[in-house]
Amino acid sequence: YDEFIALCFLQMQGRDPDGQRDITLGIMRSLMPPGGDKIFRKLFPTNKFSLELNAVICKIVFAWMVGPMTVESTTENDLGEMIASKVHIKKCRWLQESGCTGMCVNMCKTATQDFFVNDFGLPLTIKPNFEDKSCDFYFGLTPPPIEKDEAL
């Protein structure tokens, strides 16, 4: 994991925030097979089932990177319904071990939001808490414009 964090710092060098986000987006996109984005959009339209399933998948697949997570119910979503689409990370391992808010914002938050919204067509807002190093992923909540995002 230390080598992973070191690699992330190397990827940040010489890049502005947009460049840092773009390098992460490039990695995410390279993991998708051709046409994978179109298949995802068909399989996961923005509805309660898709949002809840993506929250569960996130909890399982990304625990190695960010640490233990829980899925919680919330009305903070574009549907305005109580659904289990919020993923709470009690203490983000990546943020804690890197100690870098720039890495969190540029290489995780904005890149992942962009990937889900623009490539998958599924709204996602990520809200890191830099004080206690927790973080919340809101599947189904459209992120605010960058200039209005509190984390930035």
UniProtKB/TrEMBL annotation:
Signal peptide limits: none
Domain Beta-carotene isomerase D27-like C-terminal: start-end pairs: 64-147
GO MF assignments: iron ion binding
Family annotation (Pfam families): D27-like_C (PF13225)
InterPro entries given in the database record: D27-like, D27-like_C
Name of the protein: Beta-carotene isomerase D27-like C-terminal domain-containing protein
